[in-house]
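Hi R.,

As promised on Friday, here is the backbone we talked about, encoded as C-alpha cells. Could you run it through your design pipeline when you get a chance and send me back a sequence?
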C-alpha cells in the first residue's frame, strides 16, 4: 500500500494500479487493494471501472461501507448520465421511462424525500387594471396562534 501511495503522490497512477493489482494477486482475500483501486477510479470519474473494483472488494467484505458507497454513487452517476443523454435526444419512452420513474421513486423513498429536486419557484405575476395609477400593496400576513414554528407566518 505504501508503494501505491508513493506512486500516486509522484503522479504515476498507472504504476499505482500495477502495484495494487499485484497486491490483490499476492493477497487474494484482502479487500484493501480493491477498495483503493475503486476509490482511485472514482476520483478519476471512471465510474464503470470503479463499480467493478468496488464489487471485487465487496466479494471479500460485503459490509465494507466505502466500497458500497463507491458502487452506489458510481452507479447513480452512470445512470444519471445515460438518462440525461436519452432525455436530451428525446428517446426516453416506454419501458425505459417507466423504469427510470420506478428508480426515481425508490431513490426518493431511500432518501426520505417526496421530491428529488425542488421545483423552481414561479415568479409572481402582477396584473394592473387598465387606467389605475396606484400600486396595490400586499397585505402583511398576521401571525396565527402562538407556535413553536418560527416559519409558521410564511406558510
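Update: got your reply. Pasting your designed sequence below so it's all in one thread:
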Amino acid at each position: 500500500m505504501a508503494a501505491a501511495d508513493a506512486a500516486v503522490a509522484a503522479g504515476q497512477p498507472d504504476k499505482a494500479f500495477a502495484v495494487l493489482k499485484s497486491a490483490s494477486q499476492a493477497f487474494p482475500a484482502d479487500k484493501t487493494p480493491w477498495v483503493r483501486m475503486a476509490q482511485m477510479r472514482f476520483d478519476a470519474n471512471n465510474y464503470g471501472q470503479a463499480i467493478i473494483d468496488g464489487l471485487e472488494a465487496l466479494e471479500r467484505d460485503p459490509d465494507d461501507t466505502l466500497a458500497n458507497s463507491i458502487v452506489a454513487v458510481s452507479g447513480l452517476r452512470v445512470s444519471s448520465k445515460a438518462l440525461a443523454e436519452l432525455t436530451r435526444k428525446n428517446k426516453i419512452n416506454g419501458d425505459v421511462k417507466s423504469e427510470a420513474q420506478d428508480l426515481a421513486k425508490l431513490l426518493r423513498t431511500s432518501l426520505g424525500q417526496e421530491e428529488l429536486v425542488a421545483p423552481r419557484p414561479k415568479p409572481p405575476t402582477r396584473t394592473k387594471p387598465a387606467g389605475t395609477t396606484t400600486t396595490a400593496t400586499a397585505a402583511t400576513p398576521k401571525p396565527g396562534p402562538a407556535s413553536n414554528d418560527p416559519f409558521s407566518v410564511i406558510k
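One thing I noticed while checking it: Confidence is low (pLDDT under 50) at residues 140-145, 151-155.

Thanks again,
M.
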